[in-house]
Amino acid sequence: MTVLEITGLCADAGEHRLLHDVDLVLDRGEVLAVLGESGAGKSTLGLALLGESAPGVELSVSGDSRCRDYRRSRPSGSVALLPQHPGAVLDPVRRVGPVLRELAALRHRDRAGRATAIADACEAARFDPTLLRRFPHQLSGGQQQRAALAQTLVTGPDVVVLDEPTTGLDPATSAELVERLDVLRARGTALVLLTHDLDVARALGGRAMRLDHGRVVARGTVAELLGPAAPHEVPTGRLIGDVRLQVRGLAIADRTGRPVLHGVDLDARAGELLGVVGLSGAGKTTLGRCVAGLAPARGTVRVDGALLSARIGRRSRAQRRAVQYVHQDPRATFLAHRNVVDQVARPAVLLRNVPTAAARDEAHELLTRLGVAPEVAARRPGTLSGGQLQRAAVARALLAHPSVLVCDEVTSALDAAHRDHLLAAIDALRHDHDTTVLLICHDLPLVERVADRIVVVDDGRVRA
């Protein structure tokens, strides 16, 4: 039984074509892996399958588009999307439970039916029902991902589109997600997997197609399209200097009073790349945010001996420049109405007193090195892929020439080639400015190759 069919799909951002005549047919319980490098058009396709598009992107279909008919005829929708960053679909001012009840009501008028739908969705997503009264910010990255999946499934969709679903997840949580998706497939839900994570694609199997600059360049089974992964050379450690970052007694609790960090002590030297690893929910991101002053905590943070305020709003311009933080979800950090290159250049203007024109030149040069072409950087954020925005977010932080750079899962949305370009740019910053880098990452093999030293965050405590 065919549950999704699109013929001749095109997408345009102004004069730039993002998708070229894409055809797609999907049967019940089938898995389709959409492969391609960052910026190939995967996320644009994912939105288009729902009959939607990012701001500034126009869709056109030369043939039949059943998914659009679904959207018009059924408010709950037979096609649902789990986006690359689950936080984008979780309402920050509403608890998880009421949102699920509201979505369940789109398909079930009776209370019992809604309760059953919520219970089934939580079970399928492995989301702990005891967390239903929590707000999204009270959940770990893995818990947010499970909450977003439950929110996606509660409407009973025939097709689930998953945009880089393993972004930001540790290997154990990624394996758990693959198991959940395989159960959904076995129950008859069709899956469209938009990913550069070849291991996940192999694990789920099914059919595959490869996109390159918005064009379908190959089709076949996953086994036919994916050969053995080739090793990639990445920068290695280098000589490091005196202590640059000193953290003492860092402690913070969530709004329920549950400790998230327990008196963390941490030192990192000038020019050192310190890998910070641990399971989802262990406290890695909270540690990075506390260092950056984005999550006020007890304890002290010093850079080159100078004490920094716990709140970024109370830090001087020099102190804000000293510590730059790159968020795991870059889309939330860009203004929707301004082009990307101007936003990337802004830290050089504000924090280094670089003239605007010169800052734009610096921004263009660095973005080009990271694989974001000038014509792409000239567009608004909504028309860029998650991987392109992630590279732009790192470039923006690098242009501040910080003493400490906190990178929260900055490689998780990137294919191998762009990942290595990004790591090379970070390594160049270390070489030129003795910048200390905290690389928060779930990819342990990658961290082992690039880090000078690794610490493990486990239940809010740091273990060397």
Question: What is the topology?
Answer:
Blueprint: E1 2-13, E2 16-27, E3 31-35, H1 42-48, E4 58-61, H2 66-73, E5 79-82, H3 96-104, H4 111-125, H5 141-153, E6 159-163, H6 171-186, E7 190-194, H7 198-204, E8 207-212, E9 215-221, H8 222-225, E10 243-253, E11 259-269, E12 273-277, H9 284-292, E13 298-303, E14 306-308, H10 317-322, E15 323-326, H11 340-352, H12 356-369, H13 374-377, H14 386-398, E16 404-408, H15 416-433, E17 436-440, H16 444-450, E18 453-458, E19 461-463
Parallel strand pairs: 3-7, 3-8, 5-6, 6-7, 12-17, 12-18, 15-16, 16-17
Antiparallel strand pairs: 1-2, 1-4, 8-9, 10-11, 10-13, 13-14, 18-19
Helix pairs in contact: 4-5, 11-12, 11-14
Low-confidence stretches: 64-77, 229-239
How far apart, in Å, are the first and last alpha carbons? 54 Å
The computed structural class is alpha/beta
Order of strands in the sheet with the most strands? 5-6-7-3-8-9
CATH fold group of the largest domain: Rossmann fold
Record keyword descriptors for this entry.
Rossmann fold; 2 domains; 16 helices; 35% helix; globular
Q: Any overview of this molecule?
A:
The chain is an alpha/beta fold. It has 2 domains: 2-225, P-loop containing nucleotide triphosphate hydrolases (Rossmann fold); 243-463, P-loop containing nucleotide triphosphate hydrolases (Rossmann fold). 35% of the residues lie in helices and 26% in strands. It has a 6-stranded mixed β-sheet, sandwiched between helices. A hairpin with a 2-residue loop joins strand 13 (298-303) and strand 14. Helix 4 packs across helix 5 (141-153) and helix 11 runs parallel beside helix 14 (386-398). The longest helix has 18 residues, at 416-433. The radius of gyration is 22 Å and the shape is globular. The protein starts with a strand and ends with a strand. One of its GO terms (molecular function) is ATP binding. InterPro entries: AAA+_ATPase (IPR003593), ABC_transp_ATP-bind (IPR050319), ABC_transporter-like_ATP-bd (IPR003439), ABC_transporter-like_CS (IPR017871), P-loop_NTPase (IPR027417). Pfam families: ABC_tran.
